[in-house]
Amino acid sequence: MSLESVRADLASRAPDLTVLVTEASTATVQLAADVHGVEPGQIAKTLCIRVKDAEFLLVTRGDARLDNQKSKSAFGGRPRMLGAEDVLRLTGHQVGGVCPFGLPAPLPIYLDTSLKIYDIVIPAGGDSHASIKLTLDRLAELCGNQWVDVCQLPG
Questions:
Q1: Is the pLDDT of residue 53 over 80?
Q2: Mind listing the pLDDT tens digit for each residue in 71-98?
Q3: Could you give the CA distance from residue 153 to residue 146 in angstroms, rounded to a whole number?
Q4: How many Å apart are CA 75 and CA 54, to the nearest integer?
Q5: I want to staple 29 with a disulfide (CB 3.0 to 4.6 A). Which of 35, 62, 109, 119 is the partner?
Q6: pTM of the entire structure?
Q7: CA–CA separation, 10 vs 153, rounded Å?
Q8: How would you label 65-99 residue by residue, b for 16+ Cβ within 10 Å and e otherwise?
């Protein structure tokens, strides 16, 4: 169902975008980078986070890590990653296909500034074998254009 919800969402909001379904799994950042022939940072991973009573999505580059201090400052509390059950409840997507598209209900979506070095990014597409290749500007437009600086880049 998740792949279908992403396709339906994009058909209504971004009909020019295509969900790419591959034989090989794209369930992890490294697998997705290998399938698409890009560096891991170019994979736009979607994290499901809770701070106090607020739940939201954070889209960041694939090789970045959440920085607790920056996150506390930006979100007003300590971030907690949601477990697989809560991720499914919140997004309708299984872990490995989580993306900011085709959500069952509107959610706040933040984009980490670490993505800004890329013109083209590749988030998941609602399934462990699905992805969407799009410009960073288009991703920002579709996600509400709310930027934060909450991640650490790889060493």
A1: yes
A2: 999 999 999 999 999 999 999 999 999 9
A3: 19
A4: 9
A5: 62
A6: 0.96
A7: 30
A8: ebbeebbeebbeeebeebeeeebbebbbbbbbbbb
Burial class (CB in 10 A: 0-12, 13-18, 19+), 137: exposed
CB 62 within 8 A of CB 152: no
DSSP 34-51: HHHTS-GGGEEEEEEEEE
Tokens of 77: 């509390």
Alpha-carbon distance 99 to 124, whole Å? 5
Q: Rounded to whole angstroms, how far apart are CA atoms 11 and 61?
A: 25
End-to-end CA distance of the chain: 38
Averaged pLDDT score across all residues of the chain: 96
Q: Which of 86, 90, 99, 88 is nearest to 130 (CA)?
A: 99
Helix (H) or strand (E) holding 73: helix 68-75
Task: Say yes or no to pLDDT of 3 above 80.
Answer: yes
- Residues composing the chain: 155
**What pLDDT is recorded for position 1?**
62
Report the C-alpha gap between 84 and 93 in whole angstroms: 9
Task: Tokens for 88, please give them.
Answer: 């499914």
